[in-house]
Every structure is written in C-alpha cells, then in structure tokens.
Amino acid sequence: MNWIKVKIGTTAEGIDPVSGRLLELGISGIEIADKDDFQEFLENNRKYWDYVDEELERLKEAETEITLYVSDEAAGLEQLSAVRSSMEELRKLDEEGRYGSLRISTDHVKDEDWSEIWKQYFHPIPVGKKVLIQPQWEPVAEGTDRTVFVVNPGMSFGSGSHPSTRFCIEEIEKYLRPEDHVLDLGCGSGILSIIALLLGAEDAVAIDIDANAVDVAYTNLALNHISKEKYHAFAGDILTDEQLQASLGQFDLVIANIVADVIIGLAGFVRKFMKEGAYFICSGIINERLEEVKNALINGGFEIVDVRTETDWAAITAR
After folding, report:
1. Count of CA atoms in the C-beta half-sphere (13 A) of 144
2. Can you give the C-alpha Rg of the chain in angstroms?
3. If DSSP codes are grouped into helix, strand and coil, which group holds residue 22?
4. Which residues make beta-bridge pairs with 208?
5. Which residue among 7, 8, 112, 282 is least packed, with the fewest CB closer than 10 Å?
6. pTM given for the model
7. Could you tell me the sign of the dihedral formed by the alpha carbons of 303, 307, 56, 215, in that order?
8. Parallel, antiparallel, or unpaired: how do β-strands 3-10 and 274-286 relate?
C-alpha cells in the first residue's frame, strides 16, 4: 500500500483545534512540529552546538505544522477530502487568523522498508591502522587483522564515518595504553569507549546528557561481546551534576567528541578526573573555534600534544 503525507500549516494556538477536528474524523496518529517549541529548544540548548545548519535555519522560520498519513486508495482519499472540508470550516470560523494559514500540502510516499534499503549504503569502514567498523548485518571479512567494532548504525548516534569520530579513534590508537581507565564524555552510541575497550583499555565510563544514549551504548557493548563489568554508562551533565561527579574516579584517558563550547567548559574542570600525565582527546570542533579551544586548554593547565584538521573539523589531544 502507498500513502499520502498530509501537512497542515497552523500556529501554536491552532494545534489543539486542528488536532481536535482530526480526531473527530478518526485520525489520531499525527506529528506536531511546533515552531515556538523548536525555537525555544534552540535557544535553551545553544551550548551544545556551534552553528545551526541551513535546514535548521529554515525550520526556525517555518510554520507550525501537523502531519498525518492517509492511504492512497478510495478510503484514504475520502478521508483527505474530509480533512480539507474541516480545515476550510475552521478557517472561516477563525476570523482573527489565530490558527495560521491552515494550508494543506500533500506528498505521495511509497510503502517501502527504508530500514533495509539504507543498509546498501553502509559497509565496513577501516579507521586508522587498527580498527574496522563493521555493520552488524555483514559478515566480517576473513583474515582481517584489524580490531572489529560491530555496530547497528540504524540505532546509533555515531557510526564512525564523520571526521570528528574518526579523529578520536585514530588518537585513541596512538595514546591508549594497556589497562588504561577511560572516560567518554558525550558518548552517544558508545563507539569511542567501546573501541577503547576492544583496543585494550581496562574499563570505561561513558556519560551523555541523553538518556537514550545509555541504552544504545549498552546495546553496542553487547554486540561486541564485552561484559558490563568493564563498562558503566550514565545519563547526566557532568558540568552540573554533583552526584555524578562524586561517583567518578580518575582516568588515564578522557575523550570528548562534543562541540567547542562544551570542551571550553571542560578545560578547567575535567583535570580533577584525570591522573597525572593523562591524555584528553577532544573533537567535534569546527575550525573557526580551534584556536579558542586550544587557548582554553592551555589556560586550563594542559599541554597541546596533537592537532588534527580536515575540511571544517578539528580535534585536539592534550596532556
């Protein structure tokens, strides 16, 4: 069966009346993109990124939208006609225009299993001299001498293809010592700390502000047949969560693949979780912020050991 994607332009004030009319028509499965909520989210979480890409900039100015799907057959077309009539009625009642344009746009969607289709574009990725990032659904090539990290990228926040992630893996290869204790800040899928374990780390602690990251990291840990005894993942903000801070010890290697502002915030703070001579690998830095991050690390008592750059991205290893 094919589907018709239906979008209704409205406002924050119009969400309830539009949703109510759709419910009266038997349509309960809807998606709501509230412009006001989106703008508030951007402002309140500004510290977690350095720039907003063109698509997000467009969304900042876009209408609030309600999206629904109807089947591309007689019953669905009849339902779509009823939606059009109902929105026209609401538009006439809304003399002050509080509910926005109530404009309807449609697009046809094929009923294909995208979760399977996209797999043809993800294949094993060799990184550095030692690591192979291996999709779960493909067999490992016989005879490889690389350390294999198995991942299901469909559920991950990071699969190793981005320069910032690749930089971190290559720096881990260089600076990880046998039996090191590793701290992974902003762990996402857990890719960096799990690879550190595969390369010989004694244990690892992973932290992310997103609670979903903890579940994903433990799932990837299981895919790589590593015991939970060697890995502990937590949800929280290490900069503000005093209970989380108190639970941590000291580490030989700290990794932070985040953004410049967070790394700058960590520069004078993270040392208390690091042993003497420990390394701090930080990435996710856009080139325009590189010197700013380097200066923050130096002012925080670090020695810059290595700097990597590619296209728009940079990574720093400091001690």
Report:
1. 17
2. 24
3. helix
4. 235
5. 112
6. 0.68
7. negative
8. unpaired
